[in-house]
Amino acid sequence: QVQLVESGGGLVQPGGSLKLSCAASGSISSISAMRWYRQTPGKERELVASIIRSGSTTYAESVRGRFTISRDNAKSTMYLQMNSLKPEDTAVYYCSVSVFPRNYWGQGTQVTVSS
User: Fold this and answer.
1) Quick check: 49 and 57 in contact, CB under 8 A?
2) How far apart (Å, rounded) are the C-alpha atoms in residues 43 and 28?
3) Is the pLDDT score of 103 beyond 80?
4) What whole-number distance in Å separates Cα of residue 101 and Cα of residue 107?
5) Which of 27, 69, 75 is nearest to 52 (CA)?
6) What pLDDT does residue 27 have?
């Protein structure tokens, strides 16, 4: 079992920055991959960024160059640094981790980009 707690969402103006955190507890040594997703009403959940055990990262085309995923193993925490935010980045952001054979999810944190 893994528990995830997200924080860091909020309201920011276009062009601004936010940093999301996802603190993990439980069977964290078995985590193989960590991911950030986002979802807006009426749309499917979208994979934003991922980081695997080796440290390799991948990003959605829409956020590449603006968002950075990272992790602090000592703190069992994953981050999503979001820069140059756009209104279209407005969504509920979820963190997720993979521990075979299932995925675990956080509760979500709202990010709103608006002037």
Assistant:
1) yes
2) 30
3) yes
4) 20
5) 69
6) 77
